[in-house]
Structure formats: C-alpha cells, structure tokens
Amino acid sequence: xxxxxxxxxxxxxxxxxxxxxxxxxxxxxxxxxxxxxxxxxxxxxxxxxxxxxxxxxxxxxxxxxxxxxxxxxxxxxxxxxxxxxxxxxxxxxxxxxxxxxxxxxxxxxxxxxxxxxxxxxxxxxxxxxxxxxxxxxxxxxxxxxxxxxxxxxxxxxxxxxxxxxxxxxxxxxxxxxxxxxxxxxxxxxxxxxxxxxxxxxxxxxxxxxxxxxxxxxxxxxxxxxxxxxxxxxxxxxxxxxxxxxxxxxxxxxxxxxxxxxxxxxxxxxxxxxxxxxxxxxxxxxxxxxxxxxxxxxxxxxxxxxxxxxxxxxxxxxxxxxxxxxxxxxxxxxxxxxxxxxxxxxxxxxxxxxxxxxxxx
Length: 360
Fold this sequence. Notes:
This protein has 360 residues and is of the alpha/beta class. It folds into two domains: 6-243 and 337-359, TIM Barrel (Alpha-Beta Barrel), CATH 3.20.20; 246-323, no CATH class. 38% of the residues lie in helices and 16% in strands. The chain has helices at 29-37, 59-77, 93-102, 118-121, 136-150, 172-175, 183-201, 216-224, 246-254, 277-285, 309-317, 341-359, and strands spanning 6-8, 11-13, 17-19, 41-45, 81-87, 107-111, 128-133, 157-160, 166-167, 207-210, 229-232, 260-264, 270-274. Strands 3-11-10-8-7-6-5-4 form an eight-stranded parallel β-sheet. It has a three-stranded antiparallel β-sheet with strand order 9-13-12, with no helix packed on it. The termini are close together.
C-alpha cells in the first residue's frame, strides 16, 4: 500500500502531514515553507507577530503587517501548500484572517475557540476552513451551525487529543484520565460525526489526528482508525528551519518525561509545557508582575492573570528560557537531535511506508 495523499478541498499534499501552527513565532515562514516543499502542508502561526515594543500601542496593525510579510516570505520559498493558524481568543483575529486571505492563503486553521462566524469572515468558498476540535461533539456543533447559518461546511477537521502541546481543549480533570480521551477513541467518533455532512454537501471532510503523534507508525495507526492524515507540531521544533532560538530547542533536547507538565494559562485553558525556572518561580510567588503592553487576548483578565502569556512565550522563542514559557507536546522528551525538515519528513515517510507494508 502506497502512502496516501491528503486532499483538503482543492488542495493536495503528497504526504498526509500538516505541520501544526506554533506561537509565539515558533512556526514562521522558514519552517512552513520547508514542510510544504517536502510535500506536507506548512503552517504559519499568526500569533504574536510583529515588534511588540515598537508597536506604540498599535499592536493590531503591526501584527497584521508582520503576518503579511511572513506569508510573502514563505510564498517566495515554495510553491507547496501553505496554511495559517489562528486563535479565536486573539483580539484582532478577524483582521488577521482577512489579511491571510487577501495574501492568497487557501487554508485557514482555527483553534482556541468555536469558530461559529468563520464562514462569514471568509466568504470566499474557495478558501478551505479547518477548525480544531477536541471531540466529535465539538465538530458536530460547528458543522451544524455552519450549515444552518451559512449553508457551508468545513474542508477538514483537526481532532486534537490530550497529548498535544500548548493550549488544550480538555479540563484538568479530563487530563488526569488520559486513556478515556485517547485518539484511538476520539478519531472514529469524529469520522462518524462528519459523515452526514459529507453526504449533504457531497464532498469529503477529512479528519486529521493531532496530539502526541511522534513517528510514522503513529501516523499509520491514525490512518487505520479512519483519519485521512495527521497534524504534527512538536517534532518540527528541533529542525534547523524552525525559527525558535537555539536555547528553546535545547530545552526539548534536555527535557525528561517528568519535566513535561500541565499549567494553567491566562487564556483560561490548561496547557502543556516544560517545567523550567520560569514555572518554578511562578510556583513560589503564585503571580508575577504584569505590565500589559499588548491587550492581545479577549479572555485575558490582566488583574487576575498570574503572568503575561504573550511576554512569556516571546521570551522563550527568543532564547530567554529562564523567563519564558516553553510549550511542548507530551512526547517532546523523545527528541534527541536537531535535523533538517527534509531529513525529518523522509524519516516519517519511510516509517509510515514500512508500517503500511506490514499491515497488508
């Protein structure tokens, strides 16, 4: 059995891998273009772009222009498939989405919130809308709402399980019972949930598995469960093309399994990160001094927040690890070297092909 292509609307990736969007500034043009060039779908994260300090209170305009430049930079590097990832809790998310569409991006990935108005924001039906959900119920809620209000459906669904990095769509209580929310149980449910919408709209709505997928055998297992492909993020951090500072990547290489912990984010969601000096200091004082320069999140209550997540993520990506929040997936401790995207994609394809051959 050959490795299947991944078709999302009018887009075709020769390798069924979407590189996940990682903010702040972890997955930018360099990484996204390299993945797209290797036959996957490369994703630029729209989160935290632009010069914060030089924005002079006009962060929204600065972030829009920075996203525009990242898209153009990536386009100059590849003719492959590119996507842009957005968080629903960003204050200027609608303007960022419109910027990406105006620059010709054909795949919009939307997480950290239910994108019930997304088809209204992106009226061009040729643009592929891909929500990130954590359950079949979430997928069904979005698809039913879009059908009723806009007579439109998703081009694909990303089902993100509890082993993912960054912000998670699960409660702390659910995260204490991981086997109950494994991709092995979530993916078949999601595949079944989208079938009625596929029938009514007469086109496939591929389900992509995300969260904790580490190698080609994991990809093969997701395909056997009914997924059409996968989204992977953590594996791409330790590549030469990833825009994060070397010190950020080194924390992944040094991490042990027990260093990977769940934290409470000012966004209001639990998140997975590497326990470092920043988190240890936070445990001691319970709250760090905050001077909000960005007002970037609709859900952040500055007076109650324990830290500024924008500044903490920015510090981390720039290499100030002692004062930064280092998001990661559950399997980050399994990474032991920095490779090129080409080498990683080749390794994943070889492992996937071997697993598919064994299953025949």
